[in-house]
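Encode chain A's predicted structure.
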Amino acid sequence: MDTPITISDKKKPARQKNHLTIGALIFPRMDQIDFTGPFEVLSRIPDSTIHVIAKTKSQVRDIQGLILTPQMSIVEAPEFDVLLVPGGFGQLQLMNDEEGAFPYSKSL
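Encoded structure for chain A:
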């Protein structure tokens, strides 16, 4: 049993060679589990950086009252390869905010 089992003859995808820049958007009344769960997974990707961003650098309170602090505002954020936008009751207000994050995410 020294020979590995082959399940498919398809070639494996090439391994990523570039640094991956990830943004995680937080906003009032979001559900923190929709942020922290994916954050835990994405933060473990080799050769990647994850930035926690919000409309401003002010603290954000989730739907249960947990206070989260963004690393930077949307304006200060670099260009992202991946943008995580969590769910929650605050997402409707976020989508209707003409000056906030939603226009930014539409431009990606």
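The CA atoms of residues 5 and 23 lie 38 Å apart.
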